[in-house]
Hints:
alpha/beta; Immunoglobulin-like; 2 domains
Amino acid sequence: MKKPTSLILSRLFCLSVLIILSPCVGKGKFDPPVVTDEFDRFLVTRATQIGDKIGRIELVFPNSKKVTWSLFPPSPRRDRRGYLKEGQLDATGIVEINPDTAELRLKAHPANYPAHYYAAARATNEDGFMEEVVIIIALEETPQREHALDIFTQRREGSGISFYATAGVDPKKIEYAAKVAEALLSKDRKGSGKITHFLKQKKTVMTLFKTFEERNTAIGFYMYENKLGMRNQDLEDEEIIPDFVRLGGPSNLRRDASVEEITHLIHGGGIIEAYREVQKRLEKATRSAIERKLFRPWDGLTADSFSYEYLAIGLDIFYGVRQHHLYSGRIQDEKGRPIQPSFRLSVDNDVLLNAENLKKHDPELFEIVSFLFPTREEFFREMNW
């Protein structure tokens, strides 16, 4: 998802993604390399020849200093999201990376097709380093565009958003996610209907996968994603927890990602087109929150995603999901050093994240959320809670 620069980020905190960036040793602007906090996937087929370029890794932000690239075998300690696991096939045996350009080339044919190979790619400069996951997907031949949607065997059409799910997704979770979407759009449907109109026009689709592994390796869909005439956002069965929001975000339940991811889709597919001035206000409020050290975009998040995440956090607070918390995210890095949390309403971390305090300490975000979405009571009523 998705405009401060890496300079703004680096002024706020020393970035870290599983592997801690080395201390700020460079002179002048502190500018460590920033890669995605997710992964890059690349395709290899039987037709791929030794020495062929199969892709190139890009930094999230331009960097002012020389960056050197390297590859490492898969290890869970290199990946906080959990995509790297013990026993995975090692991509460093079949591909190599150009240390200067980050181009990946095939150096040995995969032993099996189909198969998934994994590695960690590291970008390093004098100010530090950061790593991302690389997935090499070995297939007999290149997937065809006409089969790009075949993976989604369960489909449900909605008033503004459709839901496409793979075979392993629990049908009850599909219904729950669809109900969340309908509830979030209920205020718009009863009002101008502008958001719903653009969601339909852009053919917005929530793509549901059973697991992150299934999503990460679904290259047959993602290689044609931008050519299918639809706008999509993914959500996984394992992160749909229906009771979480209803119960106010209890600590004994895994966080439900449904409201957040559906909000991202509504934002990108409808809100930006329907209310351009509101989006400008949101971007300005996002920048202000960063400058006031209330919002810290996390490592690897692209700049055009900042306002998306800021809006989703505001909606979470508006609906009471974080009402027992003083901040979101960590207040220490992996070495126990203090860091700014992802979101807070006070630099002293002493204000509870509830709707009343959001209105008092971040009134612009409160007003934007209130304008776009139904109240907590209305949302709960639409959900039959």
